[in-house]
Amino acid sequence: MYKSVKRATIILLCVLIGASMIACNTQGSQSSSTTKAPSSTTTAPSSTESQATDPTEVKDPFGKYAPEITINIVRSLDSSVVFDSTDPNTKSLEENLWAEAYKDYLGITFNYLWTPTPEQYDTKWNTAIASSDIPDIGVVNGVIYQTLVEGNLVEDCTEAFNDYASDIYKSCFLEVTGDSGVALNMMTFDGKLLGIPVPGICPESVAHLWIRKDWLDAVGMTEPKTIDDLIKTAQAFVDAELGGTNTIGIALSKEVGNMRGFMDGCNAYYNMWIENDSGELVFGTIQPEMEEALLLLQQMYRDGLIREDFAVLDYNTAGQDCGAGKCGIQYGGNINSITTLKASIVEDLSSEWKPIQIPTLDGSPAKPSSSATPSSFVFVRAGYEYPEAAVKLTNLNFKLILEQPVPYSNSAEDGGLNTNKYIFPGNTALPWQNLIMHEAILDAITSGDTSDLNAIQLLTYGRVVKGMADRTDSPEPNTTRLLIFGENGSYAHVKEYRDSGRIVLSAYQSFPTKTMLTLGDTLEENLNAAILKVIMGDNITTFQKAAQEWKRGGGDTITQEVNEWFTQSKNG
Amino acid sequence: MHYKEPIGRRTFLVCNYIFLAIVAVICIMPMVHILAISLSSESAVRAGMVGIWPVGLTISSYQFVISDAKFYTAFFITVKRCILGVIISMVLTLLAGYPLSKSARVFHARQFYIWYFVITMLFNGGLIPTYLVVNGTGLMDSIWALTLPIAVPVFNVILLQNFFKELPGEISESAFIDGAGHWTVLFKIMTPLSKPVLATLTLFVLVNHWNEWFHGMIYMNRPANYPLQTYLQTIVIDIDMRLVDDISQLENLCEKNSRSAQIFIAMLPIICVYPFLQKYFTKGIVVGSVKG
Amino acid sequence: MIENIRKDMSFHIMLFPAVIVLFIYNYVPMTGAVIAFLEYKPIFGFFDSEFVGLDNFKFLFATSGFMRAFTNTVSIALMKIITGMIVPLTFSLLLNEVGNYTYKRVVQTVIYLPHFVSWVLMAGIIIEIFSPSGGLINNILVWAFKIKPIFFLGSNTLFQPVLVVTNIWKEFGWSTIIYLAALAGVNPTVYEAAIVDGAGRWKQTVHVTLPGIMPTVVLLTTLNLGKILNAGFDQVYNLMSPITMESGDIIDTFVFRMGLKNGQYSIATAAGLFKSIISSILIISSYKLAYRFSGYRLF
Q1: What is the pLDDT of residue A88?
Q2: pTM assigned to the model
Q3: Assigned fold of B62-281
């Protein structure tokens, strides 16, 4: 009895000690977390005074803060952000050449509150919001941005942006060089710009038809211009068994979105909002044009041109067939030569993949779809003393990337590290950056003068030229680059589309509506199921019924919400 | 004495061996395949050309994963949390399992407690409320955030108390008669008798701590505090298609490669520990302790 | 009652640490389930988010596809529970018969390995194996039975069985360990007594082994019953395609699409609460039934 009391006391003591350890931790970390925040507010009064004292002060896009300020920010980190502790330029997130630049030019130091992986970034934001622990500046997606706006947590940055944005930054939102002001419009509420926009959004992501020229030659056909040509070509490939006994005509996957290239060619615009003749916005997926596209695909499936289990494969797995040489046609984007087709390009030197403009029903020039709606927004906390800091940071980003790419925008292939990954607020790019590079490279090839090329352009130029010269001399990554940036590469087509104004954008250019957030995905999956089933053989009525279901199950509400925005945006 | 087993029994044994072998092969095949992927070249993996043998043998995926010093930091954090977690969980499980194994006659509040435990298996506050509590108790960025919230594995407690119930009552009876208290009986008698179950539960707790990554992600603000699996999650690349540099990143690393290498690195320690725990599963304990 | 507490003081003290931990980290967060009755936005917190009563539940149930997700969940989970009991049990009995110690050890280790592979990686392999155009399974079937290849993962009749079978492959090793441990705990003297009575191996299994581990079996099954509405999000999410949504969509994937992706916590919490209530009803019913009919307390 005595023994067990003694034992009990010991255990109780352990529990108490353990509990007090927790309590100490609580106090400890609370005090450390409360000292973090004030570091920016304690320096604030002195510098606000010095800034506010002179109303005629020049608003310098690169004005340095003195004394220095510390900003609480957040960002995502993944394995593409690499450090090398032996080199002071790339030592760590807190110590690298960009952190130095921010300090030297702008007097800004970052205090990273948290740096999760991109996958958990949004979840981390939600938990931070729930515990009222938000940073001063950070990039967020549309849903979180809207929540923050709703909660009145975003600072009015209208003046900050107008007064401090550099010319280059502003050019990102103009007509031709940028996104035509979409981002600015989306972030303006009641005339106030809440937060600052992320530059670089432009409709450059269009679908191309990637096809093997060597196979075309083998069956004596030319590049398909009409959908009909395409079908005949695929049939010819299969009949000639160019990829072995189980040659696949065209590589499709369960991801209906990647069939965009085919559907665009049929004037059916998947997942986009189109203005009809009465000036209203309608949902592209359920329009009659889609039915024709589906029936054509259905015929192709019936004729054995599509892999039997395509409907359970994701895009990359379906692309494996192309990489392995079993298939010679795939709808893809700008960089397929590096992804799904790479194996075939690298391992099989006789393969001649090339991207061509998507075929249309009647052979007329294609009108591919793309998107220019931003998915990232720079958040600035309401009440933060220096909203213009976010603008200045972006200004500096562009300045250094364009003027001094050598240390600041290194490429891993030069043997260094990707230094521009250390940029705030994550990655920043100029609109049409790749297209500009393509044009610069072509110019350099014609003129033979490479002096105007910046470092990355020069590097890619070298690769393109090598790729043009000799396929057998290490095809990787030269040929792959040639197919993207070279004379007949994907960006050549992008340029042509852009210059002739044939890129089709969704007419709805705002945040997901309330119903889209809750029901949008479910509705889309139901439509996808019907689409896939029809392609696999179901009667077209399956799709028509699904379209009706879409409308009834929430689609009509969404259409209404979308049109409300449309009317407002036309008038307002 | 060696007697010849009946022919039925021998046939059964042979078939048994064969059957078990087939099952073992089926289990290990996909693992071999994944191992092959982790050792293959990126373009071969992209083309789906890898079967059981690596194609384009390369250890670059592994190099990529373990070359970073952060890997080792994360590794030791996981080792720390495993040791801490196992000790805390097993102690709490033992302490809780014993009283719960007593019948309601002996322990009057037993029914209350057992439901108290079971309900936590059924109801869950969800991500945000749990996060707020962990944050509010000051565990953020500390190893305790990884161990305290899951310190009581209720499933294990239920298993253990069930096992205790099944032990012959005579053993503890004689101990009580000899003047031992509950604490003595628990630690000096029942614990040694329960080695198979305790070994099993230890394994489960260990594996759980080893594999757990989500808590590491949301409760650790500094990547330096990430445990191993959380760190391995960061091996995934987020590609911005607008940037040419990202394109070159894509070229150098195929996600499947690195994920496969991840799995093997993650599995290795457990496979090493497992054999040591195995010997506890296979020994019967209650031999000769009950007299008469 | 105070008298009883004093008598049982040792027990209460032993339970105290666990009780505290559970209180702080399980019971306190449980109050957060109130989110299910709010239009919760992390910005506004619990107190300022709008109270909407049962609206979230009504919205959830009314969305077409929910009932389908519910029935799929129950059917898949039921199959998993049943196979999850029979297969590991049988396997552990078979493994128990192996005399060679090393053989046993090797097999034991190997079967536990699949547990470590994530479904993200396994999905690709499974799709390849079950593919109708050159997949391993179909190759064997066509060669052995001369039938046309079957599109397993595209068929709504076969999708659920494929889920169950592949899940067994991945998880049976885990349960087998528990059963092996239980087997090791069966009193050898009872075996000796049986042998003396002339029982052969089979009779021993039926009359000694099975009854000896039956409490563990029953317990495991009951506890798994509580998970009946967890049909396995990871697995289904990675293996499902739009054409198998009819048979594959479970509550968790349904709710994920409906809003968890977009941080719509109210709906996700409402679904979670719904699942918890159903599980509780099941467990409490099994407990009471077992007690009523056999006087046996499940736990």
Answers
A1: 80
A2: 0.82
A3: MetI-like fold (1.10.3720)
- pLDDT score of A171: 84
- Judging contacts by C-beta atoms under 8 Å, the chain A residues touching residue B138 are 22, 25-30
- Whether the CB-CB separation of A282 and A257 falls below 8 Å is answered with no
What is the three-class DSSP state of A114? coil
Cβ distance B137 to A338 less than 8 Å, yes or no, reads no
Amino acid A222: pLDDT: 94
> Does residue B36 surpass a pLDDT of 60?
yes
Minimal CA separation from A20 to chain B, in Å: 12
Euclidean distance between CA atoms A99 and A97, whole angstroms: 5
The first and second tokens of residue A179, run together, are: 């996104």
CA distance A530 to C84: 34
Query: Could you state, in order of their start, the residue ranges of all structural domains in chain B?
Result: 1-58, 62-281
Residue B65 and residue B265 in contact, taking contact as beta carbons nearer than 8 Å: yes
The rounded distance, in Å, linking the Cα atoms of A239 and A249 is 9
Q: Which of A1, A80, A335 shows the shortest C-beta gap to B238? A: A80
DSSP A103: I
Q: Do A317 and C254 touch (CB under 8 A)?
A: no
pLDDT of A473 reads 60
What are residue A186's phi and psi, to 5 degrees? -65, -30
- Whether the per-residue pLDDT at B250 is higher than 80: the answer is no
Looking at domain A208-370+477-571, its CATH superfamily turns out to be Periplasmic binding protein-like II (3.40.190.10)
**CA C299/CA C294 separation, integer angstroms:** 13
Q: Which of A223, A251, A463 is nearest to A354 (CA)?
A: A223
Residues in chain A with CB shorter than 8 Å from the CB of C42 are: 126-127, 129-130, 147
Closest residue in chain C to residue B271, using alpha carbons only:
C109
For residues C208 and C205, give the distance between their C-alpha atoms in angstroms, rounded to a whole number: 6
Average pLDDT for consecutive 10-residue bins of chain A (572 residues)?
44 39 33 32 34 54 85 81 77 85 90 84 87 88 89 90 88 80 88 87 89 94 94 95 90 93 94 91 94 95 93 87 91 88 84 93 92 88 89 87 75 61 71 88 88 77 84 71 89 92 91 87 92 94 95 93 90 67
Task: For residue B252, name the pLDDT band (cuts at 50, 70, 90).
Answer: low
The nearest alpha carbon in chain B to A120 belongs to B217
Q: In sequence order, what are the beta bridge partners of A369?
A: A504
Does the A39-202+375-422 domain belong in CATH 2.120.10.80? no
Q: Is the pLDDT of residue C109 over 70?
A: yes
CATH number of C64-253+285-294: 1.10.3720.10
Q: For residue C63, what is the enclosing H or E element?
A: none
> CB C25 to CB B133 under 8 A?
yes
Residue of C nearest to B288 (CA): C189
Using a CB-CB cut-off of 8 Å, the residues of chain B touching A482 are: none
How long, in residues, is chain A? 572
Q: Do residue B241 and residue A335 have CB atoms under 8 angstroms apart?
A: yes
